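User:
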Amino acid sequence: GIRAAEDAGFPDIKLNVVLMGGLNDDEIADFVDLTREQPWTVRFIELMPIGLCAGWDKELFLPGKAVLERCPELQPVDTHGVSWRYRLPDGRGYVGLIAPLSHIFCSQCSRIRITADGKLKPCLHSKTEIELRGLHGAALDAAIRRGIAFKPEQHHLNEAGISESLRGMSAIGG
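Assistant: Predicted structure:
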């Protein structure tokens, strides 16, 4: 587990927790409390309507602000990539909030994804995929540049209610 990772010399331990109303929201304070004694980062991620969970009950989709409501002692620190970071007053670690539904951060996102089967996805939520398998040199460079150019200004999860992606997270690689 986590202790093995620390013993192996991994300095930056991050625990990702997907927020799910009625399933793990009663454990939010326990996860936050881990950062009091440990120099770990616990990142709470809003459940996204991707793949199988696209049709799930809306009560499961808990906003990131639920963490702040349940743990009002958290103090804002900074942003770290797509995560807003907080800290307990006496904490050694950080609490991160990744809120792609309640706080769209697409304009700050510079990420692309490469799937396990060799396709580039300009956006996690887009059905656009560019084949990279078999490409080398200038052709590979051009395909990657094309993928970056196809990066949309914003996802449409809040409008459509579901991701445009044809894949679930396990098939995308995230």
